[in-house]
Structures are given as structure tokens and as C-alpha cells.
Design goal:
There is one protein chain. With 167 residues, the protein is an all-alpha fold. The protein contains six helices and no strands. Helix 3 (55-75) packs across helix 4, helix 4 crosses helix 5 and helix 4 runs parallel beside helix 6. The mean pLDDT is 90.
């Protein structure tokens, strides 16, 4: 009998690899455009099992809803991963790695504005500040603060340029 779970040819060197391949196939092919339900429940379940997230899941989630992934990391208490994702996203908005987040353009005079999850960032700042006595969290706080300052400086420069172009 043919064994095609999920309607796909799933291959792997062992049962574990085949299971990961099946999970990847199901999440990436069955998730509807603009939705994150399969990504979210998969991440939540993996977190509940204490498992690491596979790169394909992180990559796909970043393109669908990076802010939601950041909130999941934060809610799980993984402040370092949440900080890394926040910094990566802000840098992508500023022009470095936007393709990893599905951003069409970077922050400049002629581009559409990109959404920044300020509420999630504020909550992350607050928790990092509350735990800044821990060296790792203090380093995260400093890194996030510097990135946000760079972002705000870029926004200010682009805003001035937009006004100058309209004059």
C-alpha cells in the first residue's frame, strides 16, 4: 500500500526525519495566505515540549507575522530570541534583510511605510529593563535600544527628505 501522509511523498533517513518532513510539508503547504494559525500552534506545541524551532518554521513565520513570533518568544520567556528577532526586523525595515521578512522595500522617501510592532517592543523593553541586573538581558536591552534609536533616526531623516521633496 502507498503511504502518502498529508498527500505528499515524505522521505527521511529515519522516522524522526520523516516526521519533521511531514510537519514541514503540512505547515508550509496547508497554511492559507495571510494566516498564521498552523505556524502559531506548531510553535506553541514545540515550546510546550521544550523543543527547538526548526529553521524552516522560523523563516516562514518571519515572512507571515514576525511580531507574533516575537510575542510567542517573549511569552515563553525567551527574551534573547525575542530581542534578536526585534533587532532583525527593525534592521530589515531599515534596508538590511527585508527579504527574510517579506518586506517589499526598505524605509526610504519613495517606499510605502512598514509597520513596526511598538506594543510588542514596549513590552519587551519593559521586561528587559526589569531584568537588566542579569548581564545577558542587560546586553539585549542595550542592543535593542541602540537599534530603535537608529531606526528613529532613519525615520526622522526620511521624513525630512519627504517634506523637502514635496516643497
Amino acid at each position: 500500500a502507498e503511504n502518502r501522509p498529508g498527500g505528499a511523498d515524505i522521505q527521511g533517513d529515519d522516522a524522526v526525519a520523516a516526521t519533521w518532513s511531514l510537519l514541514e510539508h503540512l505547515v508550509t503547504s496547508k497554511e492559507k495566505k495571510g494566516e498564521t494559525v498552523l505556524h502559531r500552534v506548531t510553535v506553541s506545541r514545540l515550546f510546550s515540549l521544550g523543543a527547538s524551532l526548526p529553521p524552516w518554521l522560523i523563516s516562514g513565520y518571519k515572512k507571515r507575522d514576525a511580531a507574533e513570533l516575537m510575542r510567542l518568544y517573549h511569552g515563553q520567556g525567551n527574551l534573547e530570541a525575542a530581542t534578536n528577532l526585534a533587532v532583525e526586523y527593525l534592521e530589515a525595515v531599515m534596508g538590511k534583510g527585508g527579504e527574510y521578512f517579506g518586506l517589499e522595500a526598505s524605509l526610504n522617501v519613495n517606499s510605502r511605510p512598514a509597520w513596526v510592532p511598538w506594543t510588542a517592543l514596549d513590552r519587551l523593553f519593559l521586561e528587559l529593563s526589569d531584568n537588566s541586573g542579569t548581564p545577558a538581558y542587560s546586553k539585549c536591552l542595550d542592543r535593542l535600544d541602540k537599534t530603535v534609536e537608529r531606526y528613529l533616526g532613519t525615520v526622522e531623516r526620511v521624513s525630512r527628505d519627504m517634506v523637502a521633496n514635496r516643497a
